[in-house]
Amino acid sequence: MGPSLVARSIQSLEELRAALVRYASDGVSALRQVERESQRTQSWLADRERHWRNVVERAREDLRRAQTAFAVCRAQVYRDPKTGAVYIPPCTAEEQVFYAAQRQLAEVERELAKTQAWARRVDDAIYRYQSQARQLSNILNSDLSRSISVLDRHITNLHAAADASAGNIGSIVGGAIGATVASLERRVSDLQQEDQRQQAAFWANQPPTAASADPADAGAAPDTTNAPTNTPPPSLTPEAQRQTEGESRPEGPPGDPRRRL
Predict the structure, then answer these.
(1) Which of 40, 46, 193, 231 is 20 to 30 A (C-alpha) from 62?
(2) Is residue 195 part of a domain?
(3) In this structure, what CATH number is given to the domain that contains residue 205?
(4) What is the count of structural domains for the chain?
(5) In this structure, is residue 256 part of a structural domain?
(6) In this predicted structure, which of 49-63, 66-80, 188-202 has the lowest mean pLDDT?
(7) How far apart are CA 170 and CA 10, in angstroms?
(8) Is 71 part of a structural domain of the chain?
(9) pLDDT tens digits, residue range 197-213?
(10) 111 CB contacts (<8 Å, ≥6 apart)?
């Protein structure tokens, strides 16, 4: 294996190492961002639940007061001393306030129940997500770190091989590139698929009132299969070049020494 191939191999491994470092950093940042969003959503739902609990308490107190006022009004029975007839006041205003308080209490209790249902749903989704996020975090912090260490050792060996004799280069390069690059590329692909699946599963369970964002579609790489190439034309031999120049030179009149034979 020549020195140029060794240099290209070192460059490829260094680029792979840099890509793994970027992926680990981006993965950790994404997990932290999702964790912050999860906590923000839970905090928001807890605030809404406290709000509706307070509203329900006030509505119940209003209903108790309206019920008491309605009962007091209905208790004011008037008996005519002359005829002995009993007159019950209509209490129309008190009755309207009482039924309005009942409707208000029922409405705010429904809002409280919906908030509590969303809180339970979000807590369950976050619990399932955290179980998978811990696995991904262990991969990013443990497996990728070991993979990067393996790459560092192989890169060091290749640098040492570049200064060694040509006979030692082939064995070192073959051991450094053969199984290492293929296994690391498979690991990166598996981690990317796992990360996308976990984020999609988490955001699919977010309530409509909480801010969420759909996973962005990955852009397709441009197709360069049929792209024109700038390959230089093949060089001509001196004899073919003279024939080409002779064919392109115009013929002179008869007897002209420049006339092509």
Answers:
(1) 46
(2) yes
(3) 1.10.287
(4) 1
(5) no
(6) 188-202
(7) 13
(8) yes
(9) 777 777 777 665 544 44
(10) 52, 55
